[in-house]
Amino acid sequence: MIEIKYPPREEIENCKKLVVSAAIMRKKTRRPGLRTVFHGCGAAGFISALVYVLMWWLCAGLKSADPLRSGVAILGAYPLGYFAFSFLSVFSEEQCEIVELKSALMFPYFYIVALRTLYSSVAAVFMNLLLIAAVFRDVGGVWSLCAAGTAFTVILAAASLKIYKKFGSSAAICALPAAWAAVCLLAGGSQRGAEIFNYAIQTVPLAVHIIVAAASILGIAFYVGKVEFKYVDC
Amino acid sequence: MLTVDNVTKYYGKKPAVENISLSLGNGLYGLLAPNGAGKTTLIKMLTTLLTPTSGEILYCGTPIEKLGAEYRGLVGYLPQRFGFYRGNTPEQYLEYLAALKGMPGEGLAEKIDKVLDKVGLSGSKKVKMKKFSGGMIQRVGIAQAIMSDPKILILDEPTAGLDPKERVRFRNIISAMSKERTVILSTHIVSDIESIANRVIMIKDRRVFRDSTVPELAGELEGQVFEASVPDGEYEAFEREYFVLSARQEQGSMAVRFYSPSPAPYKAAEPNLEDFFLVTYR
Known about the structure:
The complex is a heterodimer. Chain A is built from twelve helices and no strands. Chain A is mainly alpha-helical. Chain A has one domain (32-231). In chain A, helix 10 (175-189) packs across helix 11. The longest helix of chain A is centred in the middle third of the chain and has 27 residues, at 109-135. Chain A starts with 8 loop residues before the first helix and ends with a helix. By secondary structure, chain B is of the alpha/beta class. Chain B has two domains: 2-218, Rossmann fold; 222-280, no CATH class. In chain B, 32% of the residues lie in helices and 30% in strands. Chain B has helices at residues 39-46, 64-67, 69-72, 90-100, 108-118, 134-146, 164-177, 190-194, 214-219, 235-241, 273-280; strands spanning 2-11, 14-24, 27-32, 54-59, 62-63, 75-78, 152-156, 182-187, 199-204, 207-212, 225-231, 243-250, 253-259, 267-268. Chain B has a six-stranded mixed beta sheet, with helices on both faces. In chain B, strand 4 and strand 5 (62-63) form a beta hairpin. In chain B, helix 4 (90-100) packs across helix 5 (108-118) and helix 5 (108-118) crosses helix 6. The mean pLDDT of chain B is 92. The chains are: A mainly alpha, B alpha/beta.
């Protein structure tokens, strides 16, 4: 005869109450607002803004040179403002030692970083579009450059999120802008790279670039949605 | 009911904890072991920060990783190193953490006032935390852990940096809270839990070594703890013969409390949890 030990009645009732209250709480749960997502990112935002201004000022200086260099500079600069913010915001939180606590909360740290990645990469893309429309609209193939820059920014943002998940360190995020800078230097500095760049910007139709950019934005939104489903299920 | 079912955690090839099994209902559980014994690893698994290599942790019969956000919403956690934004006031920081805990905004300000009052920080709620002492920061940490009225409260070395008065206040808060919830308090300071823990879980060699009450643990040393007054010149020889638990200098002699597994020709003393801790991890 096997003796089965049941928990005391009071404990069974407690567990029932908890399941019900958790279900009610879950229905009330809403996605955290922008204030929560970007809390403590003021300094990172300020430094990123300085990097952003400096970077586009350098690009403006290169504008009068040959079209290839102008194009490569614009494409190269496109995601860097986002990357500066992405790295600095995570780095500053690591320095404050708040990642562990936040990772144990209902909206865990990685989910907040994912939302921040989505919002800030899209915001960076819009800022770039406005700035390019104002300053660089006379550069040849500029709208193809914008669409390609948008696609690369969000794809690299998604990649940085994946890398951060794997390595759990802001240092890992630095690998991507470094790789991006190397690719841009190759595009601007080698014969083969220049051919590929010119083909991609001048020959591939603008519509294709726009479709790829739109698909990339949808892709990162889908990925962040998956993160949300896994970690929070809002 | 929180159940730890045969949990093992490896970091690479190195085991951190092995075959841990526990059953935790309402009450205060002291997790007692020296530094590096695996307490923090166990705590991190209980807070979903780490996933066990094998075995599982269940809450009311459901694996906690399956419950995900629901489970994390029930847990209040104070990590060993409590970080904060230097530019925030405690009020701002608690508001922010409340948002991350999914707490509703309605009545939040009153709740924050109440919890800051509980930890004795109501007068400093608008002061930036960069001006706080270590003890004050730790009290903010305790406030955030209890703010959501959690069903499970997990505190990793919570009294670090607290002065004696604050420790007493902390013990009273936690003791009162443990009536209706599971409180797990990890520490290597025996006095943190001696007077308030319903059960003490001791980890040794990466495994649960004892899971018992304070009187039961202390009782294991019954008749093996003694007190003696040893002349100064004989103290070194005495120390070689017996395991000294504490020694106090008096005029020309040492008042010694010591452990001897076999009967000793000295006055027997009432053993306590600290004696058991020292003898276990000597």
